[in-house]
Amino acid sequence: MPLSRRLLLSLTLLALSGCAELSPSSSAQSESGWLSPLHQDHPLVGRIWRASDQRFISAEEMQQALSGKRFLLLGEKHDNPDHHRLRRTLLQGMLAEGTLGVVSFEMLDSGQQALVDDFSGVDLRSAQALQEHLQWDAEGWDWNFYGPVLTDLLSAGVPVQAGNISRDEMMTVYGSELDAEVAAVMDAAQMEQLNKDIDESHCGMLPASQFPAMVRVQQSRDASMARSLLATQESAGKRVLIAGNYHVRRDLGVPNYLAAGLVDMPATAEEDIVTLGFMEVSPESDVPADYTEAFSATAPYDYLWFTPAVTTEDYCAAMRAQ
């Protein structure tokens, strides 16, 4: 069977059956094939929604659309194993086809780039050796989710980029003015929404005086991820970002900085960028548009791939109880 047909079959089976392949931990897998335990029978689970024409599409249609794009921004809810598994399947298909040019990770920061660039003497088959070499933040990022993808890429010789800013850079941004060129990317409406989202993400517990600094950090991180996708100009093939769903938003995240053309970055045409959000379903809605959290006419994601949910925990309640 031709490679493209095999990839299509894999994606179709994943979408319909609950991605029974490529499990970080098969011990928790349900009979349906999903690892995430909640709302597996929700009508949206396993379906792919395209924003441009407001309809569900097949795996084949999505595959065809992704193949023609230079920049592919893949989101996630960090603790959802199904998001990681579906995304790994997409990347493995691109690896097999030889279409991957570079992959950047939110989970790696600029202080680790030198380590990413030199794996000489490191046993790529050893998870422990890789984690130690990369100085991986195991508390922040579950290696079981990211390690297999990194191993796939490194073994295939695909360039990997650290997308995030380092802790020292973050503290500098927090305490000083933002680079003027980065600051100019967002308009007033976007800045207002970023402030609202910072407040909401901190459960209304963050003093308003800290909003500007937190937004500066968010903007700096997104600008850094955009730059990382163009750090290896000589690499041919698709440039992929692995990051949280919020970072890949077309209306508020990394695509804005790609399109703006920052220092040492040519401006990227919007039609060369595609964003795919992996979204947990909620029993409160089976309407795809309800999951976009759009605040303007710009759709946050070009595609949404729906999965079961991991937990019903009220994170804000937990924060307030501390």
Topology:
Blueprint: H1 3-17, E1 48-50, E2 55-57, H2 59-67, E3 71-74, H3 81-97, E4 100-109, H4 113-117, H5 127-134, H6 143-156, E5 160-164, H7 167-175, H8 180-183, H9 188-201, H10 211-228, E6 238-242, H11 254-260, E7 273-280, E8 303-307, H12 315-321
Please provide the ordered H/E string of secondary-structure elements. HEEHEHEHHHEHHHHEHEEH
Question: What characteristic shape results from the CA principal axes?
Answer: globular
The percent range for helix content is: 25-40%
Query: Segments where pLDDT lies below 50 for 5+ residues?
Result: 1-27
Number of beta strands: 8
Percentage of residues in strands? 5-15%
What average pLDDT do the residues reach? 89
Q: Span from first to last CA?
A: 56 Å
Structural class: alpha/beta
Radius of gyration: 19 Å
The biggest sheet amounts to: 8 strands, mixed
Summed up, the helix count is 12
> How do the strands of the widest beta sheet line up side by side?
2-1-8-7-3-6-4-5
Briefly summarize what is shown.
The chain is of the alpha/beta class and 322 residues long. It has 12 helices and 8 strands.
Q: Would you write up a description of this structure?
A:
The structure is a single chain. With 322 residues, the protein is α/β, with parallel strands linked by helices. It has a domain at 3-19 and 34-83 and 165-321. It has helices at residues 3-17, 59-67, 81-97, 113-117, 127-134, 143-156, 167-175, 180-183, 188-201, 211-228, 254-260, 315-321, and strands at residues 48-50, 55-57, 71-74, 100-109, 160-164, 238-242, 273-280, 303-307.
